[in-house]
Amino acid sequence: MPQDDVGHPDHYFSARPASAGDLRTITVPIAGREVEVEVAAGVFSPGGVDKGTRVLLDEVPPPPDGDLLDLGCGWGPLALTMASESPAARVWAVDVNERALDLVRRNAARLGLGNVRAVTPGEVPDDVRFSAVWSNPPIRIGKVALHELLGRWLPRLAPGADAWLVVQKNLGADSLARWLGDALDLAVDREASSKGFRILRVSAAG
Fold first, then answer.
1. To which H or E segment does residue 81 belong?
2. Based on C-alpha coordinates, what's the Rg of the chain?
């Protein structure tokens, strides 16, 4: 559910799984190789890996193991990369959009990735703590909803773990960084900037 979407806001809310006629296969780079994945209308970036997600993938490697979270997974570029690069990890691909979750399941199966769990927010067990969170968060859902989303998930970082958020600079990256520090009492660093995006590193206490 990334924020540089210029399409319809229905991307951010529940949708029925795509029918066979809605599905389209495209070739994209995942974990250093070109692979085929399925996409569909009604899920963010059906044309490929969007710019913000590419910036995050270029800048940040996933931990080798643990529970890893792709928050707002869309059709799964972050989750599929995490699962490919960290086969010992368990990757949680979380979205409210049922069509997105169906695509992640299809794509994980297509790539032979048995360590992906594509689930709604309520299906993640309460006791799971994350070794990393990756997200291109849905800025366009509005500040209140965005703060509620991040306030729910970022406190579930394991001690010493990091969340990595890629946010378009002109859509409030710096104000979001201040809010994360002030409201959630988390350490926030502006880790990198590229192509109009800023990567925020949000760290849990060790």
1. helix 77-85
2. 16
Residue 131 to residue 68: CA distance in whole angstroms? 6
Task: Extract the tokens encoding 158.
Answer: 């394991």
Alpha helices in 19-128 (DSSP H): 51-59, 77-85, 98-110
How many CA within 13 A on the CB side of residue 192? 12
Q: State the Cα–Cα distance between residues 73 and 126, nearest whole angstrom.
A: 19
Instruction: Answer whether 40's CB lies under 8 Å from 24's CB.
Output: yes
Give the Cα-Cα-Cα angle 13, 44, 82 (nearest 5 degrees). Answer: 105
* Cβ atoms of residues 58 and 198 within 8 Å: no
- Which residue, chain included where needed, has tokens 């994980």? 108
Spatial contact of 30 and 81, defined as CB atoms under 8 Å apart: yes
| Paired tokens of 65 | 């193991």
pTM for the model: 0.92
Tell how far CA 37 is from the center of its chain: 17
pLDDT in tens, 142-181: 899 999 999 999 999 999 999 999 999 998 899 999 999 9
The span from the CA of 152 to the CA of 196, in Å, is 27
> Which of 65, 68, 67, 87 shows the shortest CA–CA distance to 79?
68
H helix or E strand, kind and range, residue 21 = none
